[in-house]
Write a structure and sequence with these properties.
26% helix, oxidoreductase, 308 residues, globular, four-stranded antiparallel β-sheet, alpha+beta, eight-stranded mixed β-sheet, Plant_2OG-oxidoreductases, Jelly Rolls, 25% strand, 7 helices, oxidoreductase activity, metal ion binding
Amino acid sequence: MGVEREQHTSSSPSETIPIVDLSDPNDELVARAVVKASQEWGIFHVVNHGISTDLIERLKEVGKQFFDLPETEKKEVAKRDDSEDFEGYTRNLKYTEDEVWADNLFHRIWPPSCLNFNYWPKNPPQYREVVEEYTKETKKLSERLLGVLSEGLGLQHDALKKGLGGDKTEYVMRINNFPPNPKPDLNLGLPEHTDIIAMAIIVTNEVPGLQIFKDDQWFDVQYIPSAITITIGDQLLRLSNGKYKNVLHRVTVDKEKQRMSWPIFVDANPDVVIGPLPELITGDNPSMFKPITCKDFKFRRLFKLPVD
């Protein structure tokens, strides 16, 4: 993304990523904290978010069990070579400079009309049950945050949800597995990028590695056991006409420890037009982005074509 990667280590700035306690009875304070973090950082942690620790631990367990399977079993849900879609298991572990170092499992989890269970592991056997339960909870959390962010734009509570496609908004599970890498300075788990989706809802294991770019420096996102990390992506940047920040981030790998993460991506329906919400555009606040359908936006980003 044009940011120099001089080293994998990060500085330690005096400020730290905001932590928002969603159980605070003062709704106005919570809303202000979520909006401020989304404007200034594009990332924040939420605690007391309403998703049980037990469910998160079960999600991590089934994910780890899948990646511990022999390669032949994982390939049963592999992304097909001829597929233009992203769903399925992929593997990319090479000791090559600037190559990524990660296994991934991708599949849609909502709405029911777009699910393809061919890409959901059958082993471990409880995988589907756990992910379906986690989907319901994540969807509640996502819609609560989108509501707060809509009101932060001075709009109705459901404005951003509608802008992403309403009940046809897509949710995608991605499990990232970053095995120990004997040459961690050669590879990143994920290169620097902003997400082409609206928002990511992330849990990880205890091994750090996520870094964000702010104030001209990279720094580490600290692991907080009880927290879920929220990142803002390109779609919310565009829908909010630039008010909410899409965070530039990357993932480093560890020489000795396996790192795993479980982001849920909140993604606009492919046919939705991703541009500033019309109510935001005035003579004093002109549109910063051209309207473009979500599928065309992703295509142009994927092939590094100009969007605006």
